[in-house]
Amino acid sequence: GAGVSQSPRYKVTKRGQDVALRCDPISGHVSLYWYRQALGQGPEFLTYFNYEAQQDKSGLPNDRFSAERPEGSISTLTIQRTEQRDSAMYRCASSSDRIFSGNTIYFGEGSWLTVV
Amino acid sequence: GQNIDQPTEMTATEGAIVQINCTYQTSGFNGLFWYQQHAGEAPTFLSYNVLDGLEEKGRFSSFLSRSKGYSYLLLKELQMKDSASYLCAVRDEGDNYGQNFVFGPGTRLSVLP
After folding, report:
1. DSSP collapsed to 3 states, B34-86
2. Which of B45, B97, B103 sits opposite A43 (nearest CB)?
3. Residue A1: DSSP 8-state
4. CA-CA distance, A82 to A12, in Å (whole number)?
5. Does the pLDDT value for residue B26 go beyond 90?
6. Is the pLDDT of residue B1 over 90?
7. Around B94, how many Cα atoms within 13 Å sit in the side-chain half-sphere?
8. Residue A97 pLDDT more than 80?
9. Do A56 and A48 contact (CB within 8 A), yes or no?
């Protein structure tokens, strides 16, 4: 696609429910990142993939959070048994290749999650 | 681990010059990036440094000193539309094709008429 696409853009869920957030990166991009961003703060790293391999998941807050990218393209971030503190903007980003060190990452518009 | 620090807020006047500083400590370093983020929008790429020195790009310049773990973003001839948050990010290349991007807290710049 032309840009990084995320869905849903807005999600309201009840506490205790599971949610799945989807990210479709720029076509051909090797690396995919998930961030969480609170209002007025910088993006907080959650996890990232190169192709289908999850390279680093050290930023996932706890075991209720998981991510996958089974075919090396679309990724899903799943939050189980949601809690109110999970309410935030979840942003996905992708980049093309590690070979060129100047490669930047491109962000999607984000999925705004509200847990009530 | 990684630690990136920036001032929380800055204010400047239209037409002026402003410098936004960023200090970082990372286990591995493979580039420093600056992003602009307008309220309610996604961050967008501004500049990149991997070697020491100044990179100029129109009204925006970015400087890097790797030995000091320090960078700054310089904005000249400020315009009202430059009011935004400016995010410093470090690409921390670890093992196994790692290229983790870690962001600082962001600096919210307000440009006044």
Report:
1. EEEECCCCCCEEEEEECCCEEEEECCEEEEEECCCCEEEEEECCCCHHHCEEE
2. B103
3. -
4. 11
5. no
6. no
7. 13
8. no
9. yes
* A3, two tokens: 């840009």
Give me the sign of the Cα torsion angle A97, B101, B58, A2: positive
Distance CA B88, CA B20 (A): 9
> B82 is written with which tokens?
């430059």
- A50 in B contact zone (CB under 8 Å): yes
Q: Which H or E element spans position A91?
A: strand A88-95
What does the pLDDT average to over A92-100?
Answer: 77
pLDDT of residue B95: 54
- From B41, B45, B102, residue closest to A104, measured CB to CB: B45
| A vs B: CB pairs below 8 A | 59
Helices (H) and strands (E) in chain A, counts: 0, 11
Inter-chain CB proximity A33 and B101 less than 8 Å: yes
- Hunting for tokens 């509200």 — which residue is that? A114
Amino acid letter for position B98:
G
pLDDT digits (tens, 9 = 90+) for B66-112: 999 999 999 999 999 999 999 999 987 765 455 778 899 999 999 99
Q: How far apart are CA A33 and CA A91, in angstroms?
A: 8
